[in-house]
Amino acid sequence: MFIAFSLRDCQPFVHSRGAISHIAAAVLVGEHVPKIIFDQVSKSYGSVEVLPPFDLTLDDGEFTVLVGPSGCGKSTTLRMLAGLETLSGGEIYFDEKPISRLDPKERDLAMVFQDYALYPHMNIAKNMSFALRLARVPKSEIEEKVQRVAKMLNIAHLLDRKPAELSGGQRQRVAMGRALVRDAGTFLFDEPLSNLDAKLRGKMRAELAEMRDTIDKNMVYVTHDQVEAMTLGDRIVVMSDGFIQQQGTPEELFKRPVNKFVAGFIGSPTMNFLDGELTQEGDAMWVRGAGYALPLSPETAADVKNANAKDVTLGLRPSSFVSEGTEGAAIELRVIVSEYLGAQSVLVTRCGEADVLVETQSATPIKSGAVRTFGVLTDEIMIFDKSTGLRL
Amino acid sequence: MQSANVNRVTPYLFLAPAALVMAVALLYPIGYMIYASFLDWNPSQRIGEAEFVGLRNYINLLGDAAFRESFFVTLKFAAVVVSLEMVIGVGLALLLDRNIRGMSVLRTLFILPMMIAPIVVGLMWRYMYHPSVGVFNRTLKSLGLDPIPWLSDGSWAFASVVIADIWQWTPFIFILSLAALQSLPQSAMEAARIDGAMGWQQVLYIKLPLMMPVLIVTLLLRLIDAFKVLEVILVLTNGGPGLSTEILSLRISRTASEFRELGEAAAMSNYLLILLVILTFAMFAYNKAVEARTARLRKAAEEDI
Q: Which helix (H) or strand (E) holds A277?
């Protein structure tokens, strides 16, 4: 099922046993980790409501990813949690304790910013220890913590430098280190990898994923990149236009999206959508549209029957196609472009008027312009109500 | 070969008119002044009739207690006004760096004093400082307090000119500091809040250090200006009482017009010029150092990726 992203995802890096994960065990010990509850939280700027009231519960120790296109309200949600934005309504609780009127410093959290937000006038050691120095932690303890985190993040040799003297990746590590040095109960990440180049991003993503497994803290991570969301999140919250579309494990979101938005947002290459019509033919239910006719699996048919919809959108993941003759129902597609990705290829094909992406093994090269018949795994077919976008 | 030479000459040809204007408008007067400082010259003579005395004017000035006093007053004035203006200006900027309704109107009001001609500022303050009809002493009187000899007592007079200068020039530092504050990286400030820095800690540990480059340039600009101040003091005290407020530019003007010693006045101007050139070079050197440092850091970062 996950081949779809692993394709785009595989970065050509040698993955040294993740530096960050070791810190996890070493640095972050036994602080209380609260359960975070958003209760009817809303946010408006003047008369513009960017976030209508919503509820959201993040279990303690969970790695939660807020994901969605830009402007969906994910960053605002995170910033309200951090205390950088006020709430327009509702309340945020850490366990039973309301926190929306507390200063950021009273919320026991650490944050990694998109642009790293390092203090340009302080060297790396000073940057990392700023919070501890403000909290009047004894010097020897600060020294020890900074050294330990720096060593594990591979930035120990940079402690005397200023941020301007570091490369993007190093700055990113320092920002991470600055958060990790503090034994906060909750870690917030605001698109921390989006300023890195693709290779570094893949490397850091893998290290973060390892950290997730070893740190027993709340992690709330905002990104617009669904690959990051899928690889990092214990739970993913998909947001769009200020609304929470769906939340669940990566697998739930991939296999059982509640609507067309989530289905299209999660997964890479993205899901194909084709207009269609449901028809009952004998015992079987069929979906038919321009250039195709596919039978539904009994389970899907049962789900669809109750909904009583006729005009629908058919959703097909590029990974749901197989070479003809092996299994599944047949569909005839004209290949427009073949994108060679190595072991696999993504074919841009045409079905009626619509473009359809198909993932295939590169072993069988396909010429552009060829008309080919592919098999479709019918139990992976998704049917959405055309007007509401909800999955049936 | 021929055309190559022509090509090389062409830019200078185009630059020549500008160079000529600059030579006439800028270098000639300065050269004239420097030359005059070596002469024993009074205004009834043509410059050619004046006697060349070499460095005598400069040497005489060094031994002249009144000049030394005046030089000292200038230094004291510049140091006091610029320090106070920096503190008040930066303080105001820190206080007003927020979204208040009508902030743009407030900002304009704040910088009004800067736009008033110095001579007008001098006259305004002179009437306010007036011993009997001035607003300060009348207020003191109505409160049952003794009047203050604002301009007639040596130390009060110095304080009075300092106050007037602060009133006029604090806004300069205020707007530059405010601009600096508002261009600070917002996320660093937010990071500081998350790290637990409260109001004054943010100012002390984050805002002021980040504003420092702008503050240093502002300070030097103000210092250069303060050394040249003339009109306000001329109108307020004319240097008195005694020599208590006689700053250098005032003494230069009096040496030339009252004492009719053009050569000596020119020499004094040159002393002031040397001081200002040193300050200006300090500013250039600072800018260069900052640029060099940034370049070096960037290079180091790029090599290190």
A: strand A272-281
B175: left (phi over 0), alpha (psi -120 to 50) or beta: alpha
Amino acid at A19: A
Instruction: Give the mean model confidence (pLDDT) for residues B157-164.
Output: 92
In sequence order, the 6+-apart residues with CB closer than 8 A to the CB of B204 are none
pLDDT band at residue A199 using 50, 70 and 90 as cut-offs? confident
DSSP single-letter state for residue A259: B
B265, B40 in Cβ contact below 8 A? no
Tell me how far apart the alpha carbons of residues B140 and B133 are, in angstroms, rounded to a whole number: 11
Interface with B, mutate which of A76, A78, A119 (most B CBs under 10 A)? A119
Judge: B304–A103 Cβ closer than 8 Å, yes or no: no
Residues of B whose CB is below 8 A from A178: 191, 195
Residue appearing with tokens 């200038």 = B74
Looking at the partner chain, which of A117, A131, A134 has a beta carbon nearest the beta carbon of B190?
Answer: A117
The residues pairing with A374 across neighbouring beta strands, listed in sequence order, are A323, A331
Q: Is the pLDDT of residue A197 over 90?
A: no
Kindly report, residue by residue over B77-97, the tens digit of the pLDDT.
999 999 999 999 999 999 888
Distance (Å, rounded) from C-alpha A164 to C-alpha A76?
28
Helix (H, G, I), strand (E, B) or coil at B7: helix
ipTM of the shown complex: 0.78
Interchain contact, B188 vs A103, CB within 8 Å: no
In three-state secondary structure terms, A332 is strand
B184/chain A closest Cα distance in angstroms: 11
Instruction: Put the strands of the sheet holding A89-94 in their side by side order.
Output: A48-58, A36-45, A89-94, A97-98
- CB-based burial, A180-212: b 16+ in 10 Å, e otherwise: bbbebbbbbbbbbbebbeeebbbbbbbbbbbbb
Please state, in angstroms and rounded to a whole number, the distance separating the CA atoms of residues A84 and A78: 9
What type of residue sits at position B18?
A
Which residues is A287 bridged to in the sheet?
Answer: A278, A294
- How far apart are the C-alpha atoms of B255 and B264, rounded to whole Å? 7
Q: Are the beta carbons of B112 and B175 closer than 8 angstroms?
A: no
The pTM of this model reads 0.78
Q: For the residues B250-261, what does the mean pLDDT come to? A: 86
The strands making up A321-323's β-sheet, listed across from edge to edge, are: A321-323, A371-376, A329-340, A344-351, A354-361
At A14, is the pLDDT very low, low, confident or very high (cuts 50, 70, 90)? very low
A86 interfaces chain B, CB cutoff of 8 Å: no
Q: What is the average per-residue pLDDT within A164-193?
A: 89
CA distance A280 to chain B (A): 58
* Contact of B162 with B77, CB cutoff 8 Å: yes
More confident residue, A322 or A326: A322
The distance between the two most distant Cα atoms of chain A, rounded to a whole number of Å, is 80
